Amino acid sequence: MASDVTRRIGIVGGTAWRWRGARRMSTSTSTSTSSAAKTKSSSGSTKKEVNLFTAINQALHIALDTDPRAYVFGEDVSFGGVFRCTIGLAERFGKNRVFNTPLCEQGIVGFAIGLAAMGNRAISEIQFADYIYPAFDQIVNEAAKFRYRSGNQFNCGGLTIRAPYGAVGHGGHYHSQSPEAFFCHVPGVKVVIPRGPQQAKGLLLSCIRDPNPTLFFEPKSLYRLAVEEVPENDYMLPLSLAEVIREGRDITLVGWGAQLSAMEEACKEAEKDGISCELIDLRTLLPWDKETVEASVKKTGRLLVSHEAPVTGGFGAEIAASVAERCFLRLEAPVARICGLDTPFPLVFEPFYLPNKNKILDAIKSTVKSSRSCVFARQQNIWLALMHPFCPHKQKQPVTGLIESGRPDSGPTVQPAPSADHPVQQ
Amino acid sequence: MSLIQLSKNQSLHAALLLPVTNSVGAHLRRHFSSTETDTRTLTIETSVPYTGHKLEPPSRSVETTQKELLTFFREMSLMRRMEIAADSLYKAKLIRGFCHLYDGQEAVAVGMEAAITKKDNVITAYRDHCIYLARGGTLVGAFAELMGRRDGCSKGKGGSMHFYKKDSGFYGGHGIVGAQTPLGCGLAFAQKYLKEEHVTFTLYGDGAANQGQLFEALNMAALWDLPVILVCENNHYGMGTAEWRAAKSPAYYKRGDYVPGLKVDGMDVLAVKQACKFAKEHVLKNGPIILEMDTYRYHGHSMSDPGSTYRTRDEISGIRQERDPIERVRKLILSHDFATEKELKDTEKEVRKEVDDAIAQAKESPMPDPSELFTNVFVKGLGADAFGVDRKEIRTVLP
Ligand SMILES: Cc1ncc(C[n+]2csc(CCOP(=O)(O)OP(=O)(O)O)c2C)c(N)n1
Ligand SMILES: [Mg+2]
C-alpha cells in the first residue's frame, strides 16, 4: 500500500486506470499502518508517524509553499483552527495568505469562489461540516455551475473547502453531522473524504490542485486518534479512484472516512465465522469510481454500504442503485445499507444512532447466510430464485441491525410503483 | 417555593438574628418581604451614560427598590453558581456535548427579564442556560437537560445548547450562529398580528453580528415595523476572535444603519433593565431597535477553550474587579444598608445549596427512553427499530 503511495508521487497526472490494476495486486488484506511502516520508499523520502491533523497541516504547508497563489482562510484559522489543522501557517506564510475571516460561512465561500475565479487556490475552512449549510447556496448555485453556465470562460477550480465531519462520541446535533450526500447531488463539485493521515495528505493536495471545486470532509474523530506513517514529501493521491483496502470473496463492503474503521472491525469478526469480506474505501464520492465497486461486487455477489449519515437519501442509496443496474444478475442477496438512522443526529442516543461494528457484522452475516442457505440463489442467481415459490427471499429480506418498518412485524416496507393495479397507498 | 410571611411586628433586625433555617431561600425572601422600606423606590445612576444611534437615549437615572436589588443579587448569584457547577459536571463527564457558559453576562439575562413579561418572547443562541433560568426555568430542568436526563427542559434531547420554555415565551437555544435572528422577526410579526402589545427579544453575539442573516432580519424588521428588539450581547469575542479582528465597525448598535440603536453597559443590571423597558416601548411605537450590551464572558467560549490564549489573564481579572455585575449590586446593597455583608454571604451559601440539591435531584432523573430517539422527528414517530451497542432490542411504540 505504502509503496503504492510513493510510487504514485509525481505521476498523478496519469489516468486513474493505470493504477487500479497495480494497486489491487499490491493491496494486502488490511489497512494496517504496519504495512506502511515496513515499506521503504523508493524515492528515499522520509516518513514520520503523525496524526490526521498534522498530516493535513503538512499538506497545507506544502500547498502554500509550492504555489504562491494559494491562500488559507476561515474562522480562527490563523490561530491554528479549532482542530489545530492550520497551526503555524500564518507565522510561516504571513497574514496576507493565511487569515481569519469573520463568522459568515456564506460570505467565506462566496469570497473563496471569487478569489479562485482569478486563478488562485482558495483553500477555505468551514469550522464544522454542520456549519456548511449557510454556504450551501454558494456551493451549489455559484461554485458548481460557474464553469458550465459561462461556457467555460470562468471557473472556480482552485476552490477547496475543508470541513470536519462526523460523530465524535458526544458532539450532539450540531457538531456531528455528515452532510456529504447533499453535495453528491451537485454536478460540478467533487466530494472527497480521507480515512486516515496518509490518505488525507495525498488526497488534500490533489483536491487543492484539482482544476475543479472540491469539498474535502475530514473525519474529526480521527484528528488525534489516527496515527500513521506519512511521507514527509509532497505527494498526491488520485481522485475518483476507490481503493480496495481488504480483499475478500464473500461480500463487498463500501464505505469512506471514519466509518471504515468500524467496517474493518466487522470484517475481522466476520472472518472468524468464515466469511471473507472485501472492503473498499471509496475516497472520492463524486465523481465516484463505479468500476472498482462493480468489479468487486461481480466477484463477491453481495454488497453492504455503510455511512454515518441517515440512511434515506444517503450516498449509500446511490451506490446500491448503481450496483443494481450494473451487477443485477450477479447479486446473490439484496444490498444491505447500514447507516445512520433517519433522525437528527442525537445527543444522548449516539450509540443507537451510529452504524457500529455489531450492526455491520450482523448485516454481513445475514446477507451472506441468507443467500448461502438459499439453494436457488446458489445454483442460479437471485433473480431466478426470487421467482421460485419456495425461495425464502420471496417473503423476507434479511433482517439487519436496523429494521425500518412502519409496522414492526410486517417485514420490510416495499413501495410499489404506482400503477392501475397497485395504486399508491395512503 | 412559597414565601414565608412573617408577622407584621417582627422587625427586619429580629428576623435576621434568627438562626438560618433549613428552608432554602426563605432567609433572603423573608428579609425583604417583611419590611415597609423594601418597596420604597430609590434612584440610581447607571455606571456610564447610554449612547444612542438615531434615537434619544433614556435617562441614566434608574428606579429600583431594596427588594429588587436583593432579588437581582440572588438571581445573578444563582446563575453564576449554576454555571460554575456545570463546569465541574462537564469535567466529570456528566455533561456531554458542547457546553457554553454564561458567567459574567448574568446582568443581561436578569435586567432584561425585569423589564418584560412572560408574554414577551426571548430567543437566543446556544449560550442559553441563564436566559432559561431568568424566564422562570428551574434548576432541575436545567441540570437534567445538561446531563441529558428525562426531566430536562427539553426532555434530555437538546442538551446544553437547546433549552426551551414554551409557557414563558422562551423560544430557546439555537446552534447555528445567527440563525435565530430572522426567527425573532417571525415571532415578532406574529405578535404584531395579535395586537397584544408583546415584543420579541432576539439575542445574538458579536460574532453572529457578522452573519448576513442579521442584516436580512434587520431589513425585514424595519420594513414591516416589527416589535423586535435585536440584542447584541457583545462579550467582545466570537470564540477566539476579538471583535476588532472580525468586524470593521464593532459599534454594533449602529450597524442597523436605519434601525435605531442603543449601547448599554451590559454589566450593570439596572442599566439593562432601563434599556429593555425603553426598548420595549420604542418597538411597540416605532419598530425595531438594536440594543448592544457591552458585556464579558469569564469562561472560555466552550468547555474545550481555556479562554486564556487570545486574551490576557489581566484583562479577565480587571473586568472581574471593576465591572462584575454581581459585585456592582453587592456594593449598591451594602452602601444603602439594605443588607449586611454576612447576609449576602448567606444568600450565596443558600444559592450554593439550592444548586447542589438540584444537581442531586437531576442525577436521579433517568435517561430518556431509547424510543425517544425516534419521536419528535415528525409529528408521528418514525416507527423504526434499532439496537444499541449492547444489542438489546429496543422497540418503539408507534403513535
Ligand atoms: C453557522 C455557524 N458557524 C460557526 C459556528 C461555530 N461557532 C459557535 S459559537 C461561535 C462564536 C460565536 O460568537 P458570538 O456570536 O460572539 O457569541 P458568543 O459565543 O460570544 O456568545 C462559532 C464560530 C456555529 N455554531 N454556527
Ligand atoms: Mg461574542
Automatic annotation (TrEMBL), chain A:
It catalyses: N(6)-[(R)-lipoyl]-L-lysyl-[protein] + 3-methyl-2-oxobutanoate + H(+) = N(6)-[(R)-S(8)-2-methylpropanoyldihydrolipoyl]-L-lysyl-[protein] + CO2. It comes from the Eukaryota. The keyword Lipid biosynthesis does not apply. Residues 50-225 form the Transketolase-like pyrimidine-binding domain. One of its GO terms (biological process) is response to nutrient. CDD domains: TPP_PYR_E1-PDHc-beta_like. GO terms for molecular function: branched-chain 2-oxo acid dehydrogenase activity. SUPFAM superfamilies: Thiamin diphosphate-binding fold (THDP-binding), TK C-terminal domain-like. It is found in: Mitochondrion matrix. Its cofactor is thiamine diphosphate. InterPro entries: THDP-binding, Transketo_C/PFOR_II, Transketolase-like_Pyr-bd, Transketolase_C. Residues 23-43, 397-426 are annotated as: Disordered. Transmembrane segments: none annotated. Its EC number is 1.2.4.4. Keywords: Mitochondrion, Oxidoreductase, Transit peptide. One of its GO terms (cellular component) is mitochondrial matrix. It is an enzyme of class 1 (oxidoreductase). Heterotetramer of alpha and beta chains. This is 3-methyl-2-oxobutanoate dehydrogenase (2-methylpropanoyl-transferring). It comes from Nepenthes gracilis (Slender pitcher plant). The lineage of its organism: Eukaryota, Viridiplantae, Streptophyta, Embryophyta, Tracheophyta.
From TrEMBL, chain B:
It is an enzyme of class 1 (oxidoreductase). Its cofactor is thiamine diphosphate. Its EC number is 1.2.4.1. Residues 75-370 form the Dehydrogenase E1 component domain. InterPro entries: DH_E1 (IPR001017), PDH_E1_Alpha_Subunit (IPR050642), Pyrv_DH_E1_asu_subgrp-y (IPR017597), THDP-binding (IPR029061). Pfam families: E1_dh. It catalyses: N(6)-[(R)-lipoyl]-L-lysyl-[protein] + pyruvate + H(+) = N(6)-[(R)-S(8)-acetyldihydrolipoyl]-L-lysyl-[protein] + CO2. The keyword Oxidoreductase applies. One of its GO terms (biological process) is pyruvate decarboxylation to acetyl-CoA. One of its GO terms (molecular function) is pyruvate dehydrogenase (acetyl-transferring) activity. Keywords: Oxidoreductase, Pyruvate, Thiamine pyrophosphate. Tetramer of 2 alpha and 2 beta subunits. NCBIfam families: PDH_E1_alph_y. The pyruvate dehydrogenase complex catalyzes the overall conversion of pyruvate to acetyl-CoA and CO(2). It contains multiple copies of three enzymatic components: pyruvate dehydrogenase (E1), dihydrolipoamide acetyltransferase (E2) and lipoamide dehydrogenase (E3). This is Pyruvate dehydrogenase E1 component subunit alpha. The lineage of its organism: Eukaryota, Viridiplantae, Streptophyta, Embryophyta, Tracheophyta.
